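pinned: reference chain
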Amino acid sequence: MQPILMSRENFKQLVESSDFVIVDFWAEWCEPCKRFDAVYAQAAAQYPDIVFGKLDVDASPEIARQLDVKQIPCVVAIRDQVIIDGQVGEMTTAEFDTLIRKWRAFDLDAIRAHFDQQARLGG
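pinned: its structure tokens
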């Protein structure tokens, strides 16, 4: 599966409708971003159950600001609408694969319990 181009028009919908999203924040002028592109595309093909999105920080700077992205390339992992981790900089295929496996194994039970408790308390 090819990475999906994300923008302010589809970002929220993709995150809300997907269990696991990895977002690559990039820019056309960013050489390290261009080098990482092949690694990212390969991972998208290897993990078809994960939504891989690409967000141009120049075209959608407000999303980058909301997620506190200050450097690119930057990938952010979102599971069940919760940001669980991020990584700045280029990575090899092996390094990125290790991160994806770590993110997939991340236990969301404590986070779910926290949000359940907040909902019960009305907060």
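why pinned: The chain is about 45% helix and 25% strand. Helices lie at 11-16, 31-46, 61-66, 93-105, 109-121.
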